[in-house]
């Protein structure tokens, strides 16, 4: 389970999150919806430990993680696909996907097992595996970022604006991939942010709306 309780965060002296509280249960599919600048990305970064809280708490499976760095939260099984993808252009797709597992010190056999599992769910990544990330389209890069998050996301996966900027056909393929993920990994929690929730309605159980750093049920 992921849980934020009374979370407040400041960026450059400006309050961005105001007492944000919600949880994502094991196997839960939750959408966080809001306009640009509402606080969606900051919420995910706070969950991952990339933005410090000035008040409140973060817990993963009941473990308080307020002082745990981002790599420590990844070690607990939380995968994160940021909106800007953050791929290494000179690395192949395969190497980009294996990198977080190597950083966490997973045994090679386990890393390759996870990679094969991702390829089963996202078969187009198997074809892209030998290509340099710098040559990918925006939609392909988003899919690689999803696969990379799956490599460490054994408990939860955080997806920041995954459909933004995608052509309708590519957005539909991404949503279909999330549907396969839901069927194959029913115990993994997924938290996804979007400006418009229309394509996600059939995939999520709960939707929260965030506006000016404050959250409410949709």
Residues in helices, as a percent range: 25-40%
Indicate the CATH class: Alpha Beta
* Structural domain tally: 1
| Radius of gyration over all CA atoms, rounded | 16 Å
Order of adjacent strands in the largest pleated sheet: 6-7-8-3-9-10
Specify the structural class. alpha/beta
Shape: globular
H/E topology pattern: EEEHEEHEHHHHEHEEE
Whole-number mean pLDDT:
91
How many β-strand stretches? 10
- CATH architecture tag: 3-Layer(aba) Sandwich
> Which topology does CATH recognise?
Rossmann fold
- Report the total helices: 7
Kindly report how far apart the N and C termini lie.
21 Å
Low-confidence stretches at least 5 residues in length (pLDDT < 50)?
Answer: none
> Largest sheet at a glance?
6 strands, mixed
Into which percentage range does the β-strand content fall? 25-35%
CATH superfamily: P-loop containing nucleotide triphosphate hydrolases
Please explain how this structure is put together:
The protein is 36% helix and 27% strand. With 218 residues, it is of the alpha/beta class. It has one domain (2-217): 3-Layer(aba) Sandwich (Rossmann fold), CATH 3.40.50.300. It has a 6-stranded mixed β-sheet, with helices on both faces. Strands 2-1-4-5 form a 4-stranded antiparallel β-sheet, covered by helices on one side. A hairpin with a 2-residue loop joins strand 4 (55-60) and strand 5 (63-64). The longest helix has 17 residues, at 168-184. It is globular. 41% of the residues are buried.
Question: What keyword list fits this structure?
Answer:
single chain, 218 residues, alpha/beta, Rossmann fold, 6-stranded mixed beta sheet, 4-stranded antiparallel beta sheet, 7 helices, 10 strands, 27% strand, globular
């Amino acid at each position: 389970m992921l849980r934020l309780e009374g979370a407040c965060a400041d960026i450059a002296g400006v309050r961005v999150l105001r007492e944000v509280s919600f949880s994502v249960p094991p196997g839960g599919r939750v959408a966080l919806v809001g306009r640009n600048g509402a606080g969606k990305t900051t919420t995910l970064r706070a969950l991952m430990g990339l933005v410090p809280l000035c008040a409140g708490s973060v817990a993963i499976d009941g473990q308080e993680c307020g002082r745990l760095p981002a790599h420590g939260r990844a070690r607990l099984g939380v995968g994160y696909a940021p909106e800007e993808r953050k791929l290494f252009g000179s690395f192949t797709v395969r190497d980009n996907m294996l990198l977080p597992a190597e950083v966490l010190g997973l045994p090679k056999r386990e890393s390759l097992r996870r990679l094969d599992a991702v390829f089963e769910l996202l078969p187009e990544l198997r074809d892209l595996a030998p290509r340099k990330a710098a040559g990918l389209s925006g939609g392909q890069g988003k899919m690689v970022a999803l696969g990379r998050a799956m490599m460490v996301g054994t408990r939860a996966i955080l997806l920041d604006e995954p459909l933004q900027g995608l052509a309708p056909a590519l957005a539909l393929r991404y949503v279909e991939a999330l549907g396969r993920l839901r069927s194959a990994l029913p115990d993994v929690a997924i938290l996804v942010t979007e400006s418009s929730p229309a394509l996600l309605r059939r995939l999520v159980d709960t939707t929260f709306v965030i506006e000016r750093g404050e959250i409410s049920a949709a």
